[in-house]
Amino acid sequence: MWVFPLLAAVVGAAFTILVAVQFVRRRRPYQALWALALAMFAAASLVVFLGVLHGWSVAEFRVYWLLGAVLTVPYLAQGEIHLLVRDRRVSSFALLVLLFGTAFALSRIRTAHVDVAALAGNLPSGTKAFRDDQFVLQMARLYSIPAYVVLVAGTLWSAWRMRGRPELRDRFAGTLAIAIGATVVAAGSAFAATGSSTGFSLTLAAGIAVMFYGFLRASRPARSPGPSLENASLR
Fold first, then answer.
1. Which of 77, 80, 12, 98 is nearest to 47 (CA)?
2. What is the pLDDT of residues 95-149, one digit of tens each?
3. H/E element holding 43?
4. Is 5 exposed, middle or buried (0-12, 13-18, 19+ CB in 10 A)?
5. Which of 34, 87, 120, 201 could disulfide-link 4, Cβ–Cβ 3.0 to 4.6 Å?
6. Angle at 141 between CA 107 and CA 18, to 5 degrees
7. What is the enclosing helix (H) or strand (E) of 79?
8. CA-based angle 95:96:101, to the nearest 5?
9. pTM for the complete prediction?
């Protein structure tokens, strides 16, 4: 099953580059946050590939848990907040909370006890690896579930604002695809907690592929001139 994490890493890296190029050209904060989140996803997927291929080390499992299970979705959600919320005081406060949460997660996961015996197999079970530190195990849910709700709600709101406009059909469909892909990736956390390498690898690759397709379609130019929807699409 090593091919699926590798595929997810390659697609994630390509996705990161495209969003980073957009940020360099347009200097939108949400693009920087999304590029960072996608880089985390690609790095976590690469670690999973290496773990499946050669066996897991404690350091690799910590990196995978921090970047893949805990931080990726919150950074995507923070990008959505910067995209949709006009009051910069709100988005700046949310960013400060995220940075504090990132520092806390890094500190806790770096020092958490990992059961080395639980690292055998293609995908170690978070439940077993952190059996002596249940809080670190729960961090994946505490960070990702609220962030997922924000991300999907914002994405669906963007799609709703574009409904019924033929010139924005591609952006509408692409935005919905991004929400669907994010849901598939989030569903993979259940497999990560139990150590199901097949389910996790499939959701990882399928989810990022759907999100990438959505991004490419949403980035197509509008079919005819119309009012700017800067805050309603991925551009």
1. 12
2. 999 999 999 999 999 999 999 988 887 788 888 889 888 899 889 889 988 998 9
3. helix 29-54
4. buried
5. 201
6. 80
7. helix 72-84
8. 95
9. 0.84
**Which DSSP state fits 168?**
G
At 186 the pLDDT is 77
- Torsional sign, CA 134, 107, 14, 214: positive
Contact 124, 195 (CB under 8 A): yes
Residue type, 153: A
The answer to whether 64 and 48 are in contact (CB under 8 A) is yes
Class of the 3-218 domain? Answer: mainly alpha
How is residue 186 written in tokens?
A: 């989030």
- Report d(CA 197, CA 50) in Å as an integer: 13
Q: Which two tokens stand for residue 90?
A: 């709100």
Is the four-CA dihedral 104, 95, 172, 225 of positive or negative sign?
negative
pLDDT computed for residue 224 by the predictor: 58
What separation in angstroms does the CA of 193 have from each of 9, 100, 123, 124, 229? 20, 24, 10, 8, 39
Position 212, amino acid: F
